[in-house]
Amino acid sequence: MQYFLYTLRLILRFVLGVIAFVIVYFICSFWLPYLKVNSDYKPSDKGISIYLESNGVHTDFVLPTKTEQMDWFTQFPCRHFEEVDTTYRFVAIGWGDRGFYLYTPTWNDLSFSTAFKAAFALDSAAMHVTYHANTPRVDEWTQKLVLTPDQYKHLIAYIIDGFKKRNGSYWHIDGHTYGKQDSFYEAKGSYSLFNTCNVWTGNGLKNAGVRIGLWTPFEDGIRKHLL
Question: What is the pTM of this model?
Answer without folding.
Answer: 0.91
